[in-house]
C-alpha cells in the first residue's frame, strides 16, 4: 500500500463510503512518536488538581486589551491573558473574538520548540486572521524556552508532548506547562483544538517514526466530516501544496491523545515535513488552519 495515498478516496464515491474508507484506511504509525529522541526526564505522576467548571470562557484572568491593527479591531476584538503567571514558564494566550457568536477553536503552536513552521504559522495567525464568527484562542509558542533555544524539549526539562495531563506541582517545567495547558482546554471547552507540529521525516520513513505531511487524530467521531472534506480538497489541490495523509492515534502522554481521551475534545495535530523550505511549510500550516476555520464558518472564503 502506498502510504502517501492511504486515505485518499476517489471523489466520485458517496460520502458514506468515503467515511468508511476514512475510518478503515487510516495508517497507524504510533503517531506523535515522531523521531526517536533521548529519554524524557521523569516527572511527577500526581494528577492535576481539580479544575473549574465547564463553559467558563469568561473566567480568564484580567484581560489585557490590545489592538493589533485598527482595521481588524473594528470587526473583531483581540485580548490576551497570562498563564503560569509569575513563573519562568509564564506565557500568553491571545483571544480573538468575532462580533458574531460561533464556534470556538484553540490553536497551539510550538509544543516542540524546533518545529518552527507550526509556531510561526500560529504567530502569523495572531496578526492576520479576520474572524467573522466565533472565538479563536492561540497559545504560541507553547514551549517558549524550547522555541527560543530552537530545541524540541523544554529547556532544562523534558518533552512537553509526553507530559500531559501534567502536574502543576511537578519539579519538571514540562509537566507544569502541560498542566496549565490542559487546565485551559478543560476550562474553555473549545469545539476543536489544532496542534501545530513538524517532522524530520516523511510518513512511514525512519523505521516508521516519520510523520511528515500528516494530520493526526485520536478519535474522529466529532470531526470525520472535517477530515474527509480536507482530504478531498487536498486531493483536488484546493488546500496545501503537498499531499497530506491521516494517522491515528496520538501517542500516550501527548497533547492530542490526552485532550481527546480525557476531555473528549477533538484534536488535530498537523505535521509538515521539514525537508521543505520554511516558507513552504508555514504556508501549508496556514492552509490547514484556514481550512478548519472556513469549515466552521469562522472566516470568509
Ligand atoms: Zn512535534
From TrEMBL:
<feature type="signal peptide">
    <location>
        <begin position="1"/>
        <end position="33"/>
    </location>
</feature>
<keyword id="KW-0862">Zinc</keyword>
<keyword id="KW-0479">Metal-binding</keyword>
<dbReference type="Pfam" id="PF24827">
    <property type="entry name" value="AstE_AspA_cat"/>
</dbReference>
<keyword id="KW-0732">Signal</keyword>
<keyword id="KW-0378">Hydrolase</keyword>
<feature type="region of interest" description="Disordered">
    <location>
        <begin position="39"/>
        <end position="71"/>
    </location>
</feature>
<dbReference type="InterPro" id="IPR055438">
    <property type="entry name" value="AstE_AspA_cat"/>
</dbReference>
<feature type="compositionally biased region" description="Polar residues">
    <location>
        <begin position="42"/>
        <end position="53"/>
    </location>
</feature>
<dbReference type="InterPro" id="IPR053138">
    <property type="entry name" value="N-alpha-Ac-DABA_deacetylase"/>
</dbReference>
<protein>
    <submittedName>
        <fullName>Succinylglutamate desuccinylase/aspartoacylase family protein</fullName>
    </submittedName>
</protein>
<feature type="domain" description="Succinylglutamate desuccinylase/Aspartoacylase catalytic">
    <location>
        <begin position="102"/>
        <end position="199"/>
    </location>
</feature>
